[in-house]
Amino acid sequence: MKIGIFGGTFNPIHYGHLRAAEEIAEKFLDRVIFVPTNITSNKNIDAEAHPQKRLEMAEIAIKGEPKFKVSDIEIQRGGFSYSYDTIIEFKKKYKNDDLYFITGADAFLGLKNWKNAEAILKTIDFIVAGRPKYGFKNLVKLIDFLPDKLKRDAEVDLKERKIVIDEKRAVYFLDTTKLDISSTAIRNNFKNNISNLFLLPNDVINYIIKNKLYESK
Ligand code: ATP
Ligand code: MG
């Protein structure tokens, strides 16, 4: 089976995440597993809802879609969440499956700064979704965003829209529908009593209201 691991804070999960996952799954995968962080390593912790609540929102959002799953692997591990650790754990658990790591274009551009970035790219193939304001038309330019040690050998395959890292690994770019939706904007809307209808699933909106998640302090 081809499985995509979609890491993120998901604070909260929204249609930008869900639609990107849908289009990536349609083209590449049999299953997408959303993996909410415990503590996101490169974000301000204060801005985050409880991990358990972010996990529950993800579960609510994917209900009824059998190819989507949610994993609590990072929350169980505790502490700061590093994708490298998650990828190693998934590799052990899904020995006989093909694993991919999914990010949006903005996250891919920051990949160089992730813990063990080079090792990650040598361990798992990536699939990168489009995101407004983060174009990836020019794949040759994107090589610049790879960790320094990988740049020299990386090659662009324009036909397959991928950067080949080495004989085993590649980063695929899929021009998914660019939905200008972010969790930050959604949290701000909640704080300011601005409608979030149609930016994320209704059941998630209701959960947020019931649990008073993003009210102004
Ligand atoms: P925040 O505003 O809090 O950073 P976010 O909307 O960026 O939230 P994250 O949880 O940070 O959501 O993102 C998790 C992953 O989903 C990242 O790889 C990110 O690039 C991707 N992603 C987020 N929003 C979109 C979107 N609208 N379209 C495509 N990918 C997205
Ligand atoms: Mg983000």
Domain count: 1
Classify the secondary structure makeup into a structural class: alpha/beta
Main beta-sheet annotation:
8 strands, mixed
CATH superfamily: HUPs
Instruction: Give the helix tally.
Output: 10
* The CATH top-level class label: Alpha Beta
SS strand fraction = 15-25%
List cofactors, ions and other ligands.
adenosine-5'-triphosphate, magnesium ion
- Tell me the distance between the termini: 46 Å
Mean pLDDT: 95
Q: Give the CATH topology.
A: Rossmann fold
Question: What global shape is seen?
Answer: globular
Helix content: 25-40%
CATH architecture: 3-Layer(aba) Sandwich
Topology as H/E string? EHEEHEHEHEHHEHHEEEHH
Strands of the widest sheet, in order across it, are: 4-2-1-6-7-10-9-8
Q: Radius of gyration from the CA trace?
A: 17 Å
Spans of 5+ residues with little confidence (pLDDT < 50)? Answer: none
Total count of strands = 10
Task: Write structural notes for this entry.
Helix content is 37%, strand content 20%. The protein is of the alpha/beta class and 217 residues long. It has a single domain, classed as Rossmann fold, CATH 3.40.50.620. An eight-stranded mixed sheet has the order 4-2-1-6-7-10-9-8, sandwiched between helices. It has a two-stranded parallel sheet with strand order 3-5. The longest helix has 14 residues, at 15-28. The mean pLDDT is 95. The site of adenosine-5'-triphosphate has 18 residues, from helix 1, strand 6, helix 5 and helix 9.
